[in-house]
Specification:
Length: 327
């Protein structure tokens, strides 16, 4: 399959590109390198460009005879989306609108979208199933839901076959631990905690220790990057006979902030300063997934269910790339 990977120089996109290549597919990376890294692309075909560039998108889709588009080129920082919402609507919604328009013009029908559990907002029940209410509480989540709706209506019009994956917390390093997280700035718990273990941060903070959980800290669902990418491969085949697919992608098991910190200490053999701080606004006590639908319909299952194994892959990558990618 010839696949355009929008955002293929980023964390998830680069791992997806590597998995596509390993599976005998022909990925073409389309990325503006504002967040991604050229070094993460490897030997895949690379086109530097913005999703706002309609003509370049059409040219790329036609030049490489693209059959499927995978979209990982969204802005992802919840806090930033609250501060500059229009930036998120412009890139996430506007960019996807242009991409879907180019696909329609070029006659490309299959689309796999990197959505988010943020579309659920503060769910009334956990674990979260796909039929839970979608009520985002920040601009980031709103943009993801807006894109899902756009895909739905385009599909209903007979112009799109799409899969939307609602990710929980992607983590770890893939492709034999050669592709890891290098966000600048970093905001994800596992790489931040690893940075503290490596002495690159003076401390790690726990935001809130009085939640209604076993140890008082928030619980989240962490899914290894390769488990997440594997579902996308399965969806490509599933779209042959389906127009609309929506799935949660998560481990199905939650780990608390304290458990993550203790796991990093165990894997690394390092101790570091941990500081208890006040709660952050909008943090739910528990957010975990029910991915039964993906397991049943796609035949998907996680191969990294244990947090320790996930952290071990991330620890290896960060130690082999102490300053991140070299570009």
């Amino acid at each position: 399959m010839r696949v355009l990977v929008a955002g293929g120089a980023g964390y998830i996109g680069s791992n997806m590109t590597a998995m596509l290549s390993a599976g005998g597919h022909q990925p073409v990376v389309f990325d503006n390198l504002s967040k991604g890294h050229r070094a993460a692309v490897g030997r895949a075909e690379f086109v530097e460009g913005n999703l706002a560039d309609y003509e370049l998108l059409i040219e790329t889709l036609k030049k490489y005879n693209i059959e499927t588009v995978m979209h990982f080129a969204s802005l992802i920082e919840v806090g930033e989306s609250v501060q500059v919402p229009l930036k998120y609507y412009r890139n996430n919604v506007g960019g996807t609108l242009t991409l879907l328009s180019a696909m329609e013009a070029a006659g490309v029908e299959k689309f796999i979208f990197s959505s988010s559990a943020a579309v659920y907002g503060m769910p009334e029940k956990v674990p979260i199933t796909e039929d839970c209410a979608t009520e985002p509480i920040n601009p980031y989540g709103e943009t993801k839901l807006a894109i899902e709706k756009m895909c739905h209506y385009q599909s209903q019009a007979g112009k799109l076959r799409y899969a939307s994956f609602r990710y929980f917390n992607a983590c770890g390093a893939g492709n034999n631990c050669s592709l890891g997280e290098d966000h600048r700035p970093e905001s994800h718990l596992i790489p931040l905690t690893i940075a503290a273990a490596m002495g690159k941060r003076s401390e790690i903070q726990i935001y809130g220790t009085d939640y209604a959980t076993a140890d008082g800290t928030c619980i989240r669902d962490y899914i290894h990057i390769e488990d997440l990418c594997r579902a996308h491969l399965l969806a490509m085949d599933k779209l042959e006979d389906n127009r609309e697919l929506v799935y949660n992608l998560g481990n199905g098991k939650g780990y608390s902030v304290r458990e993550v910190i203790e796991t990093v200490k165990k894997v690394s053999g390092k101790d570091f300063k941990v500081v208890e701080a006040a709660r952050r606004a909008g943090d739910a006590p528990i957010l975990t997934s029910d991915a039964t639908k993906a397991e049943t319909e796609l035949g998907w299952k996680t191969e990294f269910p244990e947090l320790e194994k996930i952290v071990a892959t991330a620890w290896r990558w960060h130690n082999e790339h102490p300053d991140g990618y070299e570009d």
